[in-house]
Amino acid sequence: MSNDTSNAKFVQRIKNHPQYQELVSKRSRFAWTLSVIMLIIYYAFILVIAFAPKSLGTKIAAGSVISVGIPLGVFIIVVAFLLTGIYVRRANGEFDELTRKIKEDTK
């Protein structure tokens, strides 16, 4: 029981730490921003499919077998990977540094 109490106190110390509040706020805002960007791109693509499907079927060049929809689909996948990479880079840098500082201060 004593261990539960000490764990609860430790968790509360972390939650009350000002840098923890900063970490949660920054990470949440950044994740939501990237999510909104991806959702806008994805739903724009879906709206084009729904309301202008012929535009995606347009060939890139005369005699080409590739339509506009194929590179657009690849673009969406690449953007998803890039946004994931951007998040991971920031998480491994700024967010991990804040986490390390919080751990040091609450020991």
Report on the biggest sheet. none
Sum up the overall morphology in one term: elongated
Q: For the record, give the distance between the C-alpha atoms at the N and C termini, rounded to a whole number.
A: 21 Å
By DSSP (H or I, 4+ residues per run), the number of helices equals 4
* Count of distinct strands: 0
**Structural class, judged by helices and strands?**
mainly alpha
Helix content: over 70%
Q: DSSP strand (E) fraction?
A: under 5%
Average pLDDT taken over every residue:
92
Uncertain regions spanning at least 5 consecutive residues: none
Number of domains: 1
* SSE ordering: HHHH
Give Rg in angstroms: 23 Å
Describe the structure in your own words:
This protein is an all-alpha fold. 86% of the residues lie in helices and 0% in strands. It has four helices and no strands. It has helices at 2-16, 18-51, 53-57, 69-106. The chain starts with a helix and ends with a helix.
Question: Which secondary structure elements does this structure contain, and how are they paired or packed?
Answer:
Elements: H1 2-16, H2 18-51, H3 53-57, H4 69-106
